[in-house]
């Protein structure tokens, strides 16, 4: 089976609703929100664009006939719902032009959409430019996936030049750059490293959703890395880390987003937008495109209600919503020297 097809098949097999770090985030209810549903906007601003909704279709797949069809449906979904969309890692098309169509189909189906090209952190500036040009991308995602590479039988083993390559790409391309994890989360130290080389938009992509170490371990004949299946920093822990980093940078959350309430909670940590992969992919694979479009539109409507519930007229207002942190989130704050009470005292 093609590796990309295998990834999709395993992601579907391992996808199941489960508890994650968002369950240990509670909204402190205010009984008089002083808001009006009809005057509420869920729009957000990122990369110089106004996005009509504060979530998007994050990087998933591409590189085979089957995944090309999935990308086509995801592009239609993005077009019909007004969502920004990222392709899967476009490196496959740069190595093998015969699979380029499985990525360019996203632009073909969504010619006016905001589309992100995705490449790995070990990519050269030349390949970054080629990836951007291939789909006329509005921005570039660079993904960090060291644990996945080490578990992947055919994965990379040398990460020593990642930071210098990222810096070269940030300085050398003509579109905005996002650096994202792939479900292992980010510490404040990593975020500082990225800011120091010029990165201004960061997707912390924490654990709690799809585990690529679990997927890659399932592909091995000897599954000796099963202890890494839950490796990483959770999405909420990563957001807590990011909020300890001073300075101006755009923050994106992804990893384990199950529904509109998870999107809402992530936004309350001050992120610009929220990326969703597995929940959308599973909906598409189990049901169909029409049902997935309906689900996304339902989430958009639910977010308007949730904003209204807390008195937020705009996405920016959600940063003022008081939060109560419990469980591992509270433990993480105590261990890492983070004042968790500041979230409840907003």
UniProtKB/TrEMBL annotation:
Keyword Cell division recorded: no
EC number, UniProt record: 5.3.3.2
Domain FMN-dependent dehydrogenase: 161-320
InterPro entries recorded: Aldolase_TIM, FMN-dep_DH, IPdP_isomerase
Keyword terms: Cytoplasm, Flavoprotein, FMN, Isomerase, Isoprene biosynthesis, Magnesium, Metal-binding, NADP
Compartment(s): Cytoplasm
Chemical reaction(s) catalysed: isopentenyl diphosphate = dimethylallyl diphosphate
Superkingdom, taxonomy of origin: Bacteria
Residue stretches spanning the membrane: none
Cofactor: NADPH; Mg(2+); FMN
List of residues binding substrate: 3-4, 148
Binding site for Mg(2+): 149
GO MF assignments: FMN binding; isopentenyl-diphosphate delta-isomerase activity; magnesium ion binding; NADPH binding; oxidoreductase activity
Subunit structure: Homooctamer. Dimer of tetramers.
Chain's role: Involved in the biosynthesis of isoprenoids. Catalyzes the 1,3-allylic rearrangement of the homoallylic substrate isopentenyl (IPP) to its allylic isomer, dimethylallyl diphosphate (DMAPP).
Name of this protein: Isopentenyl-diphosphate delta-isomerase
Organism, scientific name: Enterococcus alcedinis
Top-level taxonomy: Bacteria, Bacillati, Bacillota, Bacilli, Lactobacillales
Gene: fni
């Amino acid at each position: 089976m093609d590796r990309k097809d295998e990834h999709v098949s395993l992601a579907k097999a391992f996808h199941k609703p489960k508890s994650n770090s968002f369950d240990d985030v509670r909204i402190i209810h205010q009984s008089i929100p002083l808001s009006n549903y009809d005057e509420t906007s869920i729009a957000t601003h990122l990369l110089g664009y106004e996005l009509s909704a504060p979530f998007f279709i994050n990087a998933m797949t591409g590189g085979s006939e089957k995944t090309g069809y999935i990308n086509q449906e995801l592009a239609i979904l993005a077009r019909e719902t007004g969502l920004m969309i990222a392709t899967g890692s476009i490196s496959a098309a740069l190595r093998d032009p015969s699979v380029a169509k499985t990525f360019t189909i996203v632009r073909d189906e969504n010619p006016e959409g905001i589309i992100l090209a995705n490449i790995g952190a070990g990519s050269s500036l030349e390949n970054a430019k080629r990836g951007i040009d291939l789909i006329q991308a509005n921005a570039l995602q660079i993904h960090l996936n060291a644990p996945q590479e080490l578990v992947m039988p055919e994965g990379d083993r040398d990460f020593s030049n990642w930071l210098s390559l990222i810096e070269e790409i940030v300085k050398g391309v003509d579109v905005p750059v996002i650096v994202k994890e792939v479900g292992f989360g980010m510490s404040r130290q990593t975020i500082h490293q990225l800011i120091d080389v010029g990165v201004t938009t960061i997707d912390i992509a924490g654990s709690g959703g799809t585990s690529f170490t679990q997927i890659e371990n399932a592909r091995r004949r000897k599954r000796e890395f099963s202890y890494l299946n839950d490796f990483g920093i959770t999405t909420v822990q990563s957001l807590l880390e990011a909020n300890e980093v001073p300075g101006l940078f755009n923050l994106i959350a992804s990893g384990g987003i199950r529904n509109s309430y998870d999107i809402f909670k992530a936004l309350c940590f001050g992120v610009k937008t929220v990326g969703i992969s597995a929940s959308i992919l599973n909906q598409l694979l189990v049901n169909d495109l029409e049902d997935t479009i309906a689900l996304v539109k339902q989430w958009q409507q639910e977010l308007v209600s949730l904003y209204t519930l807390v008195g937020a007229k705009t996405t920016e207002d959600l940063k003022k919503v008081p939060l109560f942190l419990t469980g591992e989130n509270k433990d993480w704050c105590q261990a890492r020297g983070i004042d968790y009470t500041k979230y409840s005292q907003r």
